[in-house]
Amino acid sequence: MGKSQPQVKKEKKPKTPKDIKKELEAKLFGEKDKKKKKEIQGQIKKIDMEIEAENKKRKDVEIAKKVTIRQLIPVGVDPKTVFCLNFKNKNCNLGEKCQFSHIAPKKEDQLDDKQDTGPKLVCKFLIDALNNREFSSEWVCPLPKCKDLHKMTEMSENTEIELSLEEFLELQRQTIDAAKSTPVTEETFKIWKEKKRKEEELHAKRLAALSTAPKGVDLFKFQPDIFEDDEADGDDIDYHAREEVESDQEE
Question: Which residue intervals make up region (Disordered) (predicted)?
Protein backbone atom coordinates (compact mmCIF):
# COMPACT_ATOMS: atom_id res chain seq x y z
CA MET A 1 0.00 0.00 0.00
CA GLY A 2 1.27 3.43 -0.94
CA LYS A 3 1.85 6.03 1.64
CA SER A 4 -0.92 8.52 1.99
CA GLN A 5 0.11 12.00 0.99
CA PRO A 6 0.00 14.54 3.81
CA GLN A 7 -2.82 16.96 3.56
CA VAL A 8 -1.74 20.48 2.78
CA LYS A 9 -3.28 22.93 5.17
CA LYS A 10 -4.89 25.84 3.45
CA GLU A 11 -3.80 29.20 4.73
CA LYS A 12 -6.61 31.10 6.31
CA LYS A 13 -7.31 34.43 4.75
CA PRO A 14 -7.06 37.34 7.16
CA LYS A 15 -10.40 38.65 8.27
CA THR A 16 -11.50 41.92 6.80
CA PRO A 17 -12.96 44.70 8.98
CA LYS A 18 -16.39 43.89 7.56
CA ASP A 19 -16.06 40.23 8.65
CA ILE A 20 -15.03 41.26 12.15
CA LYS A 21 -17.94 43.68 12.31
CA LYS A 22 -20.42 40.92 11.40
CA GLU A 23 -19.04 38.68 14.15
CA LEU A 24 -19.28 41.48 16.70
CA GLU A 25 -22.85 42.29 15.64
CA ALA A 26 -23.83 38.63 16.05
CA LYS A 27 -22.17 38.58 19.46
CA LEU A 28 -23.90 41.81 20.43
CA PHE A 29 -27.32 40.40 19.52
CA GLY A 30 -27.17 37.69 22.21
CA GLU A 31 -25.25 39.63 24.84
CA LYS A 32 -27.21 40.55 27.98
CA ASP A 33 -24.43 42.00 30.11
CA LYS A 34 -24.62 45.79 29.74
CA LYS A 35 -20.92 46.30 30.40
CA LYS A 36 -19.82 43.79 27.77
CA LYS A 37 -22.48 45.07 25.43
CA LYS A 38 -21.02 48.59 25.71
CA GLU A 39 -17.53 47.26 24.99
CA ILE A 40 -18.73 45.48 21.84
CA GLN A 41 -20.51 48.60 20.67
CA GLY A 42 -17.28 50.56 21.12
CA GLN A 43 -15.39 47.97 19.03
CA ILE A 44 -18.00 48.15 16.29
CA LYS A 45 -17.76 51.96 16.26
CA LYS A 46 -13.99 51.76 15.93
CA ILE A 47 -14.27 49.34 12.99
CA ASP A 48 -16.82 51.63 11.33
CA MET A 49 -14.30 54.47 11.53
CA GLU A 50 -11.60 52.27 9.97
CA ILE A 51 -13.94 51.23 7.14
CA GLU A 52 -14.90 54.86 6.53
CA ALA A 53 -11.23 55.92 6.42
CA GLU A 54 -10.41 53.11 3.99
CA ASN A 55 -13.32 54.05 1.73
CA LYS A 56 -12.23 57.70 1.76
CA LYS A 57 -8.67 56.70 0.88
CA ARG A 58 -9.90 54.54 -2.00
CA LYS A 59 -12.14 57.34 -3.23
CA ASP A 60 -9.24 59.84 -3.14
CA VAL A 61 -7.13 57.46 -5.22
CA GLU A 62 -9.90 57.15 -7.81
CA ILE A 63 -10.29 60.94 -7.97
CA ALA A 64 -6.53 61.36 -8.37
CA LYS A 65 -6.56 58.93 -11.28
CA LYS A 66 -9.22 60.98 -13.05
CA VAL A 67 -7.10 64.15 -12.84
CA THR A 68 -5.12 64.68 -16.05
CA ILE A 69 -1.39 64.59 -15.34
CA ARG A 70 0.82 67.04 -17.20
CA GLN A 71 3.70 64.78 -18.12
CA LEU A 72 7.01 66.55 -18.81
CA ILE A 73 10.14 65.12 -20.41
CA PRO A 74 13.60 66.63 -21.09
CA VAL A 75 14.53 67.98 -24.49
CA GLY A 76 15.84 65.27 -26.79
CA VAL A 77 13.86 62.37 -25.32
CA ASP A 78 11.42 60.65 -27.67
CA PRO A 79 7.94 60.82 -26.04
CA LYS A 80 7.03 57.47 -27.58
CA THR A 81 9.65 55.82 -25.36
CA VAL A 82 7.91 57.11 -22.20
CA PHE A 83 4.84 55.29 -20.90
CA CYS A 84 1.74 57.52 -20.64
CA LEU A 85 0.77 57.97 -16.98
CA ASN A 86 -2.77 59.07 -17.87
CA PHE A 87 -3.23 55.90 -19.91
CA LYS A 88 -1.96 53.91 -16.93
CA ASN A 89 -4.66 55.58 -14.79
CA LYS A 90 -7.27 54.85 -17.50
CA ASN A 91 -7.67 58.57 -18.08
CA CYS A 92 -6.32 59.02 -21.62
CA ASN A 93 -8.67 58.79 -24.60
CA LEU A 94 -6.31 60.17 -27.25
CA GLY A 95 -5.36 56.79 -28.61
CA GLU A 96 -2.77 57.01 -31.40
CA LYS A 97 -2.86 60.82 -31.23
CA CYS A 98 -1.23 60.74 -27.78
CA GLN A 99 2.42 61.76 -27.92
CA PHE A 100 3.34 59.19 -25.25
CA SER A 101 3.43 55.42 -25.50
CA HIS A 102 0.36 53.38 -24.57
CA ILE A 103 2.28 50.11 -24.56
CA ALA A 104 3.16 48.99 -21.06
CA PRO A 105 6.81 47.99 -20.59
CA LYS A 106 7.34 44.25 -20.92
CA LYS A 107 8.58 42.16 -18.04
CA GLU A 108 11.62 41.23 -20.10
CA ASP A 109 12.52 44.91 -20.40
CA GLN A 110 12.40 45.27 -16.64
CA LEU A 111 15.11 42.66 -16.10
CA ASP A 112 18.70 43.81 -15.68
CA ASP A 113 20.51 43.59 -19.00
CA LYS A 114 24.23 43.24 -19.49
CA GLN A 115 26.13 46.49 -19.26
CA ASP A 116 27.26 48.02 -22.52
CA THR A 117 31.00 48.10 -23.13
CA GLY A 118 30.90 51.57 -24.73
CA PRO A 119 30.97 54.88 -22.85
CA LYS A 120 27.72 55.88 -21.16
CA LEU A 121 25.95 59.22 -21.19
CA VAL A 122 24.79 61.39 -18.34
CA CYS A 123 21.06 60.95 -17.70
CA LYS A 124 19.08 63.68 -19.48
CA PHE A 125 16.52 63.68 -16.68
CA LEU A 126 19.33 64.41 -14.22
CA ILE A 127 20.69 67.26 -16.35
CA ASP A 128 17.20 68.71 -16.70
CA ALA A 129 16.66 68.51 -12.92
CA LEU A 130 19.99 70.26 -12.31
CA ASN A 131 19.25 73.06 -14.77
CA ASN A 132 15.76 73.61 -13.31
CA ARG A 133 17.08 73.45 -9.71
CA GLU A 134 14.78 70.53 -8.95
CA PHE A 135 17.57 68.16 -7.91
CA SER A 136 17.83 67.06 -4.27
CA SER A 137 19.08 64.08 -2.27
CA GLU A 138 15.63 62.49 -2.69
CA TRP A 139 15.55 62.90 -6.47
CA VAL A 140 14.88 59.67 -8.38
CA CYS A 141 15.14 59.16 -12.11
CA PRO A 142 11.63 58.73 -13.60
CA LEU A 143 12.88 55.91 -15.82
CA PRO A 144 12.94 52.80 -13.58
CA LYS A 145 15.70 51.02 -15.53
CA CYS A 146 17.67 53.98 -16.86
CA LYS A 147 21.15 52.86 -17.94
CA ASP A 148 22.66 56.35 -18.03
CA LEU A 149 24.91 57.79 -15.34
CA HIS A 150 23.45 59.42 -12.25
CA LYS A 151 26.40 59.62 -9.81
CA MET A 152 29.97 60.85 -9.88
CA THR A 153 31.28 57.43 -8.84
CA GLU A 154 29.84 55.93 -12.04
CA MET A 155 31.93 58.29 -14.19
CA SER A 156 35.40 57.21 -13.05
CA GLU A 157 35.90 54.93 -16.05
CA ASN A 158 34.14 57.13 -18.61
CA THR A 159 36.59 59.81 -19.74
CA GLU A 160 34.58 60.86 -22.80
CA ILE A 161 31.78 62.45 -20.77
CA GLU A 162 31.41 66.21 -20.92
CA LEU A 163 29.79 68.00 -17.99
CA SER A 164 28.91 71.59 -17.30
CA LEU A 165 30.36 73.20 -14.18
CA GLU A 166 27.01 73.02 -12.38
CA GLU A 167 26.57 69.34 -13.21
CA PHE A 168 30.13 68.51 -12.16
CA LEU A 169 29.79 70.30 -8.80
CA GLU A 170 26.46 68.65 -8.04
CA LEU A 171 27.73 65.18 -8.89
CA GLN A 172 30.95 65.82 -6.97
CA ARG A 173 28.88 66.80 -3.93
CA GLN A 174 27.40 63.30 -3.88
CA THR A 175 30.84 61.84 -3.13
CA ILE A 176 31.31 63.91 0.05
CA ASP A 177 31.11 61.92 3.28
CA ALA A 178 28.44 63.65 5.33
CA ALA A 179 29.80 62.10 8.56
CA LYS A 180 33.19 63.82 8.14
CA SER A 181 31.88 67.24 7.15
CA THR A 182 30.08 69.99 9.02
CA PRO A 183 26.41 70.06 8.06
CA VAL A 184 24.99 73.43 7.04
CA THR A 185 22.21 74.15 9.48
CA GLU A 186 20.36 77.36 10.25
CA GLU A 187 22.54 77.89 13.34
CA THR A 188 25.90 77.32 11.57
CA PHE A 189 24.79 79.56 8.71
CA LYS A 190 23.95 82.39 11.14
CA ILE A 191 27.41 82.07 12.78
CA TRP A 192 29.13 82.15 9.39
CA LYS A 193 27.05 85.13 8.25
CA GLU A 194 27.83 87.10 11.43
CA LYS A 195 31.56 86.37 11.01
CA LYS A 196 31.51 87.59 7.41
CA ARG A 197 29.62 90.74 8.45
CA LYS A 198 32.26 91.61 11.06
CA GLU A 199 35.07 91.03 8.55
CA GLU A 200 33.39 93.33 6.03
CA GLU A 201 32.87 96.04 8.68
CA LEU A 202 36.55 95.88 9.70
CA HIS A 203 37.64 96.08 6.06
CA ALA A 204 35.38 99.10 5.47
CA LYS A 205 36.80 100.89 8.54
CA ARG A 206 40.35 100.36 7.31
CA LEU A 207 39.50 101.78 3.89
CA ALA A 208 37.79 104.77 5.49
CA ALA A 209 40.82 105.43 7.69
CA LEU A 210 43.14 105.40 4.69
CA SER A 211 40.90 107.70 2.66
CA THR A 212 40.51 110.27 5.47
CA ALA A 213 44.22 110.41 6.48
CA PRO A 214 45.81 113.83 5.61
CA LYS A 215 48.04 113.86 2.53
CA GLY A 216 51.10 116.06 1.82
CA VAL A 217 49.22 118.41 -0.51
CA ASP A 218 46.44 118.89 2.04
CA LEU A 219 48.95 119.68 4.80
CA PHE A 220 50.73 122.24 2.60
CA LYS A 221 47.45 124.02 1.82
CA PHE A 222 46.05 124.18 5.33
CA GLN A 223 49.30 124.35 7.37
CA PRO A 224 52.03 125.85 5.17
CA ASP A 225 53.97 127.06 8.21
CA ILE A 226 55.20 123.56 8.97
CA PHE A 227 57.02 123.55 5.62
CA GLU A 228 58.86 126.89 6.22
CA ASP A 229 62.58 126.58 7.05
CA ASP A 230 63.92 128.29 10.12
CA GLU A 231 66.58 130.92 9.34
CA ALA A 232 68.83 129.47 12.01
CA ASP A 233 68.55 125.96 10.67
CA GLY A 234 71.01 126.49 7.79
CA ASP A 235 73.35 128.91 6.02
CA ASP A 236 72.26 131.06 3.09
CA ILE A 237 73.48 129.75 -0.22
CA ASP A 238 74.74 132.11 -2.97
CA TYR A 239 73.43 130.29 -6.02
CA HIS A 240 74.98 132.92 -8.44
CA ALA A 241 78.49 132.37 -7.07
CA ARG A 242 78.03 128.60 -7.25
CA GLU A 243 77.09 128.81 -10.93
CA GLU A 244 80.26 130.84 -11.72
CA VAL A 245 82.47 128.28 -9.96
CA GLU A 246 80.85 125.43 -11.90
CA SER A 247 81.37 127.24 -15.24
CA ASP A 248 85.10 127.86 -14.49
CA GLN A 249 85.57 124.17 -13.71
CA GLU A 250 84.04 123.14 -17.03
CA GLU A 251 86.49 125.42 -18.92
Answer: 1-27
